[in-house]
Amino acid sequence: MDSVKCLRRRHRVSIEPLLVVLALAFGYSVGAQPADANARGFATLDAFLSDVHSLTADFKQEIYESDEKPVETDTGSLSFARPDRFRWTQAPPNELVVVADGKKLWTYDVELEQVTVAPLDDTFRSSAAMLLSGDRQVRDGFNVVGTFSRDGLDWVKLEPKAAASDFTSVSIGFEGKSPRRLELVDGLNHVTRIALANVVVNPPLADEVFQFVPPAGASVLGGKNKG
Predict the structure, then answer these.
(1) Pairing between strand 219-221 and 114-119?
(2) CA–CA separation, 76 and 128 (whole Å)
(3) What is the distance between the alpha carbons of residues 93 and 72, in angstroms, rounded to a whole number?
(4) What's the pLDDT tens digit per position in 99-123?
(5) Which residues contact 19 (CB under 8 A, 6 or more apart)?
(6) What residues does each domain of the chain span?
(7) Taking the CA atoms of the chain, what radius of gyration do you get in angstroms?
(8) Cα torsion through 127, 76, 223, 103, rounded to 10
(9) Residue 155 and residue 149: Cα distance in Å, rounded?
(10) pLDDT of the residue at 60
(11) In b/e form, how buried is each residue of 95-114, taking b as 16+ CB within 10 angstroms?
């Protein structure tokens, strides 16, 4: 496998904490804020999180290993519904489908014809994915470290409390009440930037959007694909 494919596989493995960040952005209340926090920024975040029940958007995701240019760029669409349900569909050439159905997380690598399934249980939530639990507040696992304005957006920056987290910070940029950008920084200072377009808040979404059936011929890893 060439170096580009190896890099692609490495980033595909890390897609789960990134989607957890999306769950954070689209599904949780933040709770009490530090007294010195920017009031406008937290008001924007709290207003959005308290009102959103579902969301759809198109995305452009760029992964950087330095500040020069992205090593990978992907586009696609996402859907989200509280609690614990989302669908992330990445377009070719890095075709990927990730579905959380409320009980399990399904990751389908189309090129490899491989499905990985994992339970949304306490073990899963003990990592960065703990934010998938619909009844947990962000403050249980994150510290809010600041707000700022950049590129015409109001940003809120959070850092995980757990030292073993897959990422060191996540920042969410809002235009009014609508999320427009997310930035994820991992322990190696690699940055994932997601730009959202055509955002629709609280659309009606059928249960089938968050159901996944492994395609015929695909291998299924995880041993928990029943039920």
Answers:
(1) parallel
(2) 23
(3) 11
(4) 888 888 898 999 999 999 988 764 4
(5) 86, 88, 98, 100
(6) 3-213
(7) 17
(8) 60
(9) 6
(10) 94
(11) ebbbbbbeebbbbbbbeeee
* CA–CA distance, 39 with 26 (Å, rounded to integer): 20
pLDDT higher than 90, residue 32: no
User: What are the residues facing 74 on neighbouring strands?
Assistant: 61
Using one digit for the tens of pLDDT, what is the confidence trace for 34-82? 555 556 656 666 666 677 778 899 999 998 987 778 888 999 998 888 7
> Which pLDDT value is given to residue 48?
66
Q: How far apart are CA 116 and CA 222, in angstroms?
A: 6
Fold of 3-213: outer membrane lipoprotein receptor (LolB), chain A (2.50.20)
Q: Phi/psi at 184 (nearest 5 deg)?
A: -115, 130
